[in-house]
Design goal:
The complex is a heterodimer.
Chain A (H helix, E strand, L loop, with lengths): L13 E2 L9 H5 L5 E4 L2 E4 L10 H4 L6 E2 L9 H10 L15 H4 L2
Antiparallel strand pairs in A: 1-4, 2-3
Chain B lengths: L3 H4 L39 E7 L2 E6 L5 H11 L12 E5 L8 E4 L3 H10 L5 E5 L7 H7 L4 H10 L2 H4 L4 E4 L9 H8 L2 E4 L7 H6 L6 H4 L5 H29 L9 H28 L9 H18 L7 H21 L9 H31 L1
Parallel strand pairs in B: 2-3, 4-5, 4-6, 6-7
Antiparallel strand pairs in B: 1-2, 3-5
Chain lengths: 106, 384
Amino acid sequence: MNQQSYFPEVLTLQLIQEQCNNCGLCVMVCPHEVFEMKNKKVHIIGRDFCMECGACKKNCPQGAILLDVGDGCGCAAGIIQGVLTGTAPTCGGPNESSSVMSALKI
Amino acid sequence: MGCSDQHGDAAPSSKLLSIQPYSSDRPCGCQTVNHGIDHHSDRTHYVIGAIQTSAGAIPQISSRLKLEDELGAFMVRWGIRRNHFRVDPGLYAVGTPNERSDVMVTANYKFTFDMVRQNLEGMNVWLLVLDTKGVNVWCAAGKGTFGTKELINRIQLTSLGKIVQHKRIILPQLGATGIAAHLVKEYSGFTALYGPVRAADIQAFIQTGYKATKEMRRVKFDWYDRLKLIPNDIIYNLRYFLALFLGISVLSGIHTTSYSVQQVLRNSIPIIKIITVGYVAGLIVTPLFLPMIPTQNFSFKGLIIGILFSAIFFLSHSLNGSTLAQCAGAFFIVSLSSFLAMNFTGASTYTSLRGVKKEMKIAVPIQIMLVVFSLVLFVLDMTN
């Protein structure tokens, strides 16, 4: 799979199978292949690779995904900036231009 | 557009369904029908014409970058005029789109906008630029500015429903963190399709009938991605390098009873050596070899590489100072390397907020402790 996991023990992702209508949108939006559609049913196959970005939860019309997304991104500089300015973690600094994201994101 | 600065960020962007008429309350003369384009900036050299639609003229943009774009990118990397590095939100035309053409959605961060339009070369599509306050798609989605409200609002402001006959918009996959496709459908009537993660795959996605392969859906973080980050990170951290250097240099002048400028000058080279080694360890070597270094913890990865480097530093007697001074340098290198590596969590593509907080709870006290050790040894050496 060639993916890296990061503190899987603190992750909060849960899929409530009874509420899920297997629309598959979570499979589509997840950037780390955490979900898989198998026999027309959604399964979690790579929970350890979840980064709690919240894309699946946001796009689940059934509310079948439980996830505590939190306020901010997984970015130490953002957390420090948040602590210094007394706000939520913010990544609005010029560091953004240095992020690989600017190269990856459309 | 002469009216750029009067508006600033006051543009009506995200009150759900509270559409403000665009021609009113403009303090300056740009009251023309502008299809939801907020004039934040005067950097509109990429507009090369206009496409007439049933809802008026839509600016047509070039899919080729100019020297000006490259220059702007260069300046923003150095932190100059960063606030101007945004694109006016609104609807744009690439090529000669018509009422059946696809609509792509993106952020108004200039880097992102440039990346997208470059990859739309040869296509005839509409490009809907959301007001993300000059932030890229993924970060803006995390903050909610690349969000459901803004998208619904922007669809209405641009009269998109009049311009295209279909009800289909293509969103970047990483925008999903901020946008609920089912709510977009409910409030705007438009079906939001999630396109690929990377702009480079847009053409393939459309050609295969809006299908993205697994590969296109996954965020990667390979050697090349990490390598690309390093020059930017070095430039970004240069100012801290200078600040650190000046700070420690000033401290290094302290003598038992007096302050010696001569001593400051004498110490400047060893100080530069120490900071440089810390930077190389934490900012270059750790990110590059990230998956190969044991532990999942970024700051510990930096710690390990820092120890390695300071051991080499120590054993090779690079400092030419007393053992005390060399120890001080070694401690400092380890702390700096750990700190810089920890900051790489923000650049990586797989860290969770909860994970980073957990990591910092242990790492920051260790880093502070190491710096304190280092400074104590440093001062002891100076006053000896």
